[in-house]
Amino acid sequence: MASPRKNCAPRPRPQLSEITREVSGSKGRYVLSQDGHEAELTYSRLGETQVIADHTSVPEALSGTGAGLKLVTRLIEDARAEGFRIVPLCPFVNAMRRKHPEWADVFNV
Question: I want to staple 37 with a disulfide (CB 3.0 to 4.6 A). Which of 41, 61, 66, 88 is the partner?
Fold first, then answer.
């Protein structure tokens, strides 16, 4: 008969570094780096009042760490702080919008 497993606590998730924001003209991206891997959310500016969330990419090594949600959350925080609205072209950003109705104030759909 097998003995019960001890110490069945879930493995701790790796700590993700702070998110940086890179801007080049009307294009930009949010980047989250961990152990040499980068997750990113790219966007394009439409004037001063709108940003199109184009694409979110999370490498396999960061899958399941919440990296994508952290990137979208940072975009939401910046939209509120800077007064722009988000057009969720990226399917992941759009899915997170639907999952978080409390973010409705910053989306143009």
Answer: 61
What residue ranges of the chain have pLDDT lower than 50?
1-16
- Tokens describing residue 92: 């992941």
- Asked whether residue 7 is assigned to any structural domain, the reply reads no
Q: Rounded to 5 degrees, what angle do the CA atoms 32, 46, 85 make? A: 70
- The CATH number of whichever domain residue 59 belongs to comes to 3.40.630.30
Q: Are strands 85-87 and 50-57 parallel, antiparallel or unpaired?
A: parallel
pLDDT in tens, 58-84: 999 999 999 999 999 999 999 999 999
Q: What is the DSSP letter of 6?
A: S
Residue 80, classed as helix, strand or coil, is helix
